[in-house]
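User: Hi! I have a protein structure encoded as tokens and I'd like to know what sequence might fold into it. I'm fairly new to this, so please keep things simple.
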């Protein structure tokens, strides 16, 4: 008697709808850089182990490797917002554990809040003859910090 196998795994793992790219986009969208970490110039990654219920909700988080200054709490907060797709197989209520790294980089945050000073050298308001208009040179500088 031959067995007809439809699925490779007896219990299927939960997955985030849209894959890893969608999860990264979700985390970036909801992440708020902690004020204390901004003031101290703290960067790094927080590694979190989280538990997914049989309904696909994150029911528990634990910081495995943190950087402090409010980043650990923020990473836990946004991981708790994740919702996974879980297939209902064999009426089992299985909990899954996964690990994720949440990255905090100041360069990405500063691009949003950068200060720009623009300088323009040269004058456009002076009256010039036809020969001087051809050699009109002005320079523009931008300073960002």
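Assistant: Happy to help. Inverse folding works backwards from shape to sequence: for each of the 145 positions I chose a residue that suits the local structure. Here it is:
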């Amino acid at each position: 008697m031959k067995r007809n196998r439809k699925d490779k795994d007896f219990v299927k793992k939960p997955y985030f709808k849209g894959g890893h790219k969608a999860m990264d986009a979700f985390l970036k969208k909801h992440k708020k850089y902690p004020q204390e970490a901004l003031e101290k110039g703290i960067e790094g990654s927080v590694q979190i182990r989280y538990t997914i219920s049989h309904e696909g909700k994150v029911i528990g988080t634990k910081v495995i490797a943190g950087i402090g200054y409010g980043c650990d709490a923020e990473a836990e907060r946004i991981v708790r917002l994740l919702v996974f797709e879980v297939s209902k197989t064999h009426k089992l209520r299985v909990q899954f554990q996964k690990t994720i790294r949440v990255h905090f980089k100041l360069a990405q945050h500063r691009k949003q809040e950068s200060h720009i000073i623009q300088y323009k050298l040269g004058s456009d308001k002076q009256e010039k003859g036809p020969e001087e208009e051809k050699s009109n040179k002005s320079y523009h500088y931008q300073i960002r910090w």
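A useful reference point when you look it over: The first strand starts at residue 44 and ends at 52. Feel free to ask if any position seems puzzling.
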